[in-house]
User: What shape does this take?
Amino acid sequence: MDPSDPSDPSDPSDLVELRTMYVFSPAEGETWGLAFDGFGSHLLTRDPDEFLRLDEGRTGPVRGASLHFGITCDDEVLEGFAVLMPEGVAIKDCTARAAADFVAWLRDAVVPQDKTITFNTEWGIEGQIPDSPVPEGTRPRLVASFLAHLETLGLG
Assistant: This one.
């Protein structure tokens, strides 16, 4: 990282604005019992104006069926997708703050209370970094956990 480069994300305030895809999934060996209709129902209960689109897996980068959706987090509309195999939900091009808002909703509305949520980022997956458990607690604690993940990738 070059400190003289204005695009260098090593300043913690820059990490807060850094955008990547966050991937949330059950802990290894667990399942949430995720189903497209249930996930879509929770999403539309949250906001009836959000979009949903089922992709049967014949096109695009996601193999197998996936449910693409829009969701408003941290006052911006984001896109994501849910898949059943392997089970999980991803939110694309978002900040740590938006990811914290999303996973708080996911925990409260979708994932059974006795199940663990793990997370990774697109960069973590590419770097073969193992998934980490999403901590219990407040939005600031979630944001701190996501920023710490970014720092372990050498981005801070």
About this structure: Confidence is low (pLDDT under 50) at residues 1-11.
